[in-house]
Amino acid sequence: MESFRQELKALIPSRFFERQAEIIQRIDNHPEVQRLRKEYPDRTADLTSPRHYRDISQHLSYCDACNACPGLNACQNEQKGHRSVEEPNPTQLDELVFRLRKCNLLKAYEKQQGIGQRIKSHYIPSHILDATFDDIEPDPQRLAAITAAVKFCSTFVPGETTEGLYLYGPMGVGKSRIAGAIAQELAKCDVDVLMVYVPDFLLEVKDAIGSKTETVENKLDSLRTASVLILDDIGAETLTVWTRDEVIGPILQRRMERLPIIYTSNLTINELRHHLANVKDAKEMDRKQHEKKAERIIERIEPFVKILPVGGRNRRRD
């Protein structure tokens, strides 16, 4: 028996027990362990026992990495973007268990990604889509428009809000950024928003005519059904009879009194009326007919929006 004990002792590395005692001492002295002992006095008596060593060591490793957090991209934890949290063990009343949970940085990142998924766009620059109300200077010439935009977001109720906004003014004064901020704010509330740059979108639809019919229908259906539609720079497009009567008209008709639209334009309502009557392929003999069709579209816009001027300096040239 003595010989066996000697052989077993020889297999144990030198200072093994001393090193174990030092490790346990370091764990005992760790601020996180001291916090746990203070908060859970009845569940931490066995915290540094061999059977809990792996769990508490991993917990402390995560805590140390989180305390020196270098940011989400450079996260040092084995499971990036996660922190270790303690919970009372529901089956062992004298123990704690440790779980990995998403940290606030990962939650914020995923939330932002979700916002991006809820804002669909066609040909809208990222600096417009990423705009927020905090980024927009509330100067006097556009304060009324910004206030109305904020109110639209704060009072928006899916399925109930039907009145939109018509923001008009010179180029470069920030109409599109206000619309982009609306999209951001609504997306944070899980509202699906579609923002379309009208001139390019109409060209895309026209180009899709030669392809399968359902391709055009899919493009148009997304505009008909989005909870909030933003038509950016309406009036800047080159209109044809077809794009006016078969694209814009039916989209507005489908949404009228049901789903709100936010418009931005360089044109007043009266100027937009004139633009809609003067389509590219209009025939002089059909002038009155085109004016009636233009008026029909205006009747699908004007009664269902709050019309607001946006003024100020041209910020693109600053």
From TrEMBL:
Coiled coil: none annotated. CDD domains: AAA. Residues 161-290 form the AAA+ ATPase domain. SUPFAM superfamilies: P-loop containing nucleoside triphosphate hydrolases. It holds the Pfam family IstB_IS21. InterPro entries: AAA+_ATPase, IstB_ATP-bd, P-loop_NTPase. NCBIfam families: PRK08939.1 (NF006505). This is Primosomal protein DnaI.
